[in-house]
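Anyone opening a protein record will find just a pair of labelled lines. A complete record is shown below as an example:
=====
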Amino acid sequence: MHVSPANPAAQPVQRMDGSRVMSHALTTDAVAPGWRTALPVMVLVLFAILLLFRDTALSMVAIWARSDTYAHGMIVPVISLWLIWRQRTRLARLAPGHSYAAIGLLAVAGFAWLLGDLAAVNVVPQFALVAMLVAAIPVVLGWEVARALAFPLLLLFLAVPFGDFTLPVLMDWTARFTVLALRLSGIPVHAEGMQLTIPSGHWSVVEACSGVRYLIASVTVGTLYAYLSYRTLRRRLLFVVASFLVPIVANWLRAYIIVMLGHLSGNRLAAGVDHLVYGWLFFGVVIMLMFWIGARWREDDSPPVAPVKRSAALPMANPPKAAGTWLAAAATVLVAGLWPLAQWRVDLIAPPPLGDLPALAPITGWEPVTTRINWQPHFENPALRLQAAFQRDGREAGVFLAFYRNQNAQHRLVSSSNVLVKSNDPVWALVSGGSREIAFNSQPLTVRTALLRGANQSRLLVWKWYWVAGRWTASDALAKAYTAWSRLIGRGDDSAAIIFYAVEDRPDEDDRVLADFVRDAAPAIDSALRQASGTR
C-alpha cells in the first residue's frame, strides 16, 4: 500500500518497496484550457465530413469487407485512435487553437475529391476524403496539435484501398525473375508473357502471384513497427523502405520455389491451393526475419520527464475562446460541403441514357463476315457494345467498341477490370504488349498494342485506344483527365474503348493488314461515336 500526496502530478509517490517514482497521473491542472470545447467540436466536425462524403466512406468499407487484400483497412483507423490515446498526456498539455490557413489544404483536397468523382476514379476521392479529415485537425485544433498527431493521422492514408494498378508490373517482375532463376537452375523454359512452359508442365503467373497482398501487408505493418521501435527519422525511413523491398523479392523467391517444388515432385506438390498455403508460410517466415533483424537496432523510449507545474508548461496569457473554435469548425464544414454541392450540380446536367449504337457505315474495300475469331475483350457494364468482323483478300480483321455514359464506380471506361483478356481465361492469354504510332482519321495517334495467344497456338494482334468527348488517347491517365474536365464544363462523359484486331497468320504482313483496316474504318468509327454521343 502507498500514500498519495495532494498533487500526484507534481510530487513523488512512495511504493511499498521504498522506491520513489514520479506519477504521470493527469490532473485538472495538467490539462490545457480549451479542450473541454475543442475535443467535442472536433469530433462533430469529423462526423460531419464523413456524413457529407458518406458514399465515398462506404465505398472504402465495402472494399475492406469483400477484399482480402485490403481487409487491413478496417483496423487502420482503430490503430490510429490507439496511437492518439497513447499520447493523451502530452496532448492534454498542448493548448488547442485554430488555423484558418489550413482551410486552403482542405479546399485542395475537396477539389481533388470532385475531380476524382467526376472521372470515376475510386482511389482519388478516397484519398481526398482522408486528406480532408486530416486537414480538419489543424483548422480546428491548430498546427501544434496537428504536428503532435502527425504519424497517427498520416497512417490513415494506408486504409485507402490502393495498389491494383501495380498488378501488371508486379506480375511481369515475378515472371521475369522466375524464368531467370529456372534457367540458372538448368531447367529450360519457354516464356510468353505470363505463361511459362518447362519440361514437367505449364505454369501461369496470375494476379495471386503478383505479391501485392504481401506488399500491402508488409508496408502497413512495417510502417507501424518503424514508428513504435525507432525514434530517429533515418531509421524509420530505412525500415519502411525495407518493408517495401523485402516482400517484392520474397515473392520472386516464393514463385521460383513453388515451380521448383512442382517440377521436382512431378507436380504432386505445390499444385492447386497448396502453392497459396506454401506462399503464405514462406512470406510469414521472411517477414518474421525482417522484424527480428530490425529489432537489433531498436531505439528505446527517452527516459520519462517529470511533470512540470502548470505555470511553466501552459502559458495562460491568451487562453483560446470557445467562439473561435466553433467558428473554425463552421468554416471547415462549409468548405467541405461545397464539393458535394458542386457534384450535385454537375449531376443535374447529365445526359439521358443512350439508345442503340448506330451501325457502322460501309468500310471501303472490306466486306462484313461472320467472324471465325472466338474472342471478345472483357469490359464491364458498357452502356453500348459493338463487335464486327470484315474481310479483304482472304484476310480477316475486326473491331470492338465499348461505349460509356454517366460513369460511376460500377460503370466506367478506365478500370483495372477492363482488360483485353483476363488472367484466368481458359482460351486466350496475353503474350506481349507495347505501343506504336499510327494515323487515325488523318490524325497522328499513339496506340497500345498486344499479342494474344489462343487455342491451337492461334495468335491475335490487337490495337487499343480511347475516345473521350471527341479526343483520342491511349493513356489511362489522360482519358480520366479528359472525362473529369468534360463533365466539369457540362459536356458529359461520353467515352468509348476502340479495339482493332486481326489474326496473326503471317507476322510480316499482319501489322500492315491491321494498319490498312484501321485507316479504312476510321471514318465509320468516328461517325458512329459522334452519332451515339449526339455530336456532329
The chain has a mean pLDDT of 83. The first strand starts at residue 12 and ends at 14. DSSP finds 16 helices and 13 strands in the chain.
